[in-house]
Each structure stands twice: as C-alpha cells, then as structure tokens.
Design goal:
Structural class: mainly alpha
Shape: globular
Order of helices and strands: HHHHH
Distance between the termini: 37 Å
Radius of gyration: 15 Å
Number of strands: 0
Largest sheet: none
Length: 103
C-alpha cells in the first residue's frame, strides 16, 4: 500500500509538460520516460487492479498495468491517461488463466 500512496503523491505533484516529455521519451530520453512513469504509476496500478480478470492476482495486475504504461510512454503517447484503460483492458484480454492441472 505504501507503493500506491507514494505513486499517488508523485502523480499529484507532477507539474511537467506531458506533450514535451512524451516527445522526449519517444526520442529515447530516459529521464523523460522516468518522469512520465512516475506521474502515471498510481493511475496505471489502480486501473490494472480495477480491470483485472478475477483469476489474475492483484500484484500481477499491477505489474501488467505498469508494463502497458511503459509501452505507451516509449511509443510516445501524448494522451496517456486516456489511452491507459483501453490499453490495459486489451492486454488483459490477451492473457489466459493458468492451467489448473485438472486437464
């Protein structure tokens, strides 16, 4: 829970120019990637937890959501907050539950 609390603080305190950072991140600027990731971590994790399939453990849903966030950032999205839910949902739709061993 401390992780989510810190991530929420980072998001609230974010005062960067999202479009400029997205452009820099797309160009390979590691600091821009880190700044955008920090700004959107809480949104990504909470969205992942909210949209997760019932069979997917909460920590795994948060991790998958972070991977989606990272991909959006590296692809240069300038509308991360708007793109994130549908991108996470699409990722979860491609995942399959683990085999329960009964088959």
């Amino acid at each position: 829970m401390e992780f989510v609390t810190q991530a929420a603080e980072d998001a609230v305190n974010f005062d960067g120019d999202e479009v400029a950072l997205a452009s820099a991140a797309w160009s390979g600027d590691k600091d821009a990637v880190a700044n955008l990731a920090r700004a959107y971590t809480a949104i990504a994790v909470l969205t992942g937890v909210r949209l997760r399939p019932s069979w997917l453990p909460i920590p795994d849903a948060g991790q998958e959501a972070m991977l989606v966030l990272r991909r959006l950032i590296e692809d240069g999205s300038t509308t991360i907050a708007a793109d994130l839910p549908s991108a996470i949902e699409a990722t979860f739709a491609r995942l399959r539950p683990p085999d329960d061993g009964s088959g």
